[in-house]
Structure formats: C-alpha cells, structure tokens
Design brief:
Blueprint: H1 11-35, H2 53-77, H3 86-102, H4 106-109, H5 117-140
Helix pairs in contact: 1-2, 3-5
Length: 153
C-alpha cells in the first residue's frame, strides 16, 4: 500500500467545494472580527458594532463549530487551503474599483438626470483625483506573483 490518500472527489468538484468553503471561512473571519469588537471607520464608511455580549459569545461559538466542520471536510475530502496575500487583494480590488470611480463623472451621472456644469466639473475632477490615487496605490505594488505566492517588486 502506498499510504497516499485519495479523495472521493474529482478535481473539478474538489476545487468547487474548496472555493466555496474558503469563501465561507473568509466570511467567518469577518464575523469573528465583529464578535471581537471590530469597528472599521472611514470617511463615508463606518461600521457600528452593536452586538450584545451574548450575541458575540454565540457568534464565536458558532464560528468555532463551523470551522470544525470545514476542517473535517478539508481532511476527509483532501481539500487544499488557499492563501489570500495582501498585495494581490489590494491590487485586484483597486483595479476592479476603477470602473466604479469612472461612473461618478458628470457624463455618467447624466443618465440619472440633468447635472449642473459646476457639479460636472467638480465630479470629473474628483473622479480623476481618486483614480490617480488608486493608480498610485497600484504603482506602489508589484504586478506578478513569484513562485512562492508573494509578489515580486
């Protein structure tokens, strides 16, 4: 006997299950942060952590239980863990978000009705400045992953 364990799933099925469970585990990380008291604060985005202590306790217990199920599935089905590195996540989110910023220009907003020339000028400038800022973030990050999963600079 070779001792090598074979999975009861075909590779395509294993990838689908791994992806779904990895996304669930990512959600559990976020819930765990809220259960721990996390509140992110930005300029136009603020989280209000209004969880009661009993809710936090229930969330932590449930997250632990769900992670146990995920761990059992990982072992039983020979699922591969994924690693989300910060560089790739920042790069992909910034690159994808560029389209949203292009939609706040005067020309795009006219779809919703008339926009004054002054507002168009201000929003076009704001869109350009925000896009430039995202480009600065993207330019600060390397573009291609190295073989070890990190991104080369």
């Amino acid at each position: 006997m070779s001792g090598k364990r074979t999975s009861p799933l075909e590779e395509n099925h294993r990838r689908a299950v791994s992806t779904t469970l990895a996304l669930l585990d990512e959600l559990l990380c976020r819930i765990e942060g809220w259960a721990g008291g996390r509140e992110d604060r930005g300029i136009l985005y603020t989280e209000r952590n209004n969880l009661a202590p009993s809710q936090r306790k229930t969330l932590r217990q449930t997250v632990a239980h769900l992670r146990g199920l995920i761990l059992s599935a990982r072992i039983e089905l020979d699922l591969k863990a994924t690693t989300q590195d910060a560089l790739s996540d920042i790069w992909s989110r910034c690159a994808a978000f560029r389209q949203n910023l292009m939609e706040i220009t005067g020309a795009s907003l006219r779809r919703y009705g008339p926009v004054s020339r002054d507002v168009v000028h201000r929003l076009d400038a704001l869109s350009r400045d925000l896009l430039d800022g995202l480009d600065t973030i993207l330019d600060a990050l390397p573009k291609a992953p190295d073989g070890d999963g990190t991104i080369a600079g």
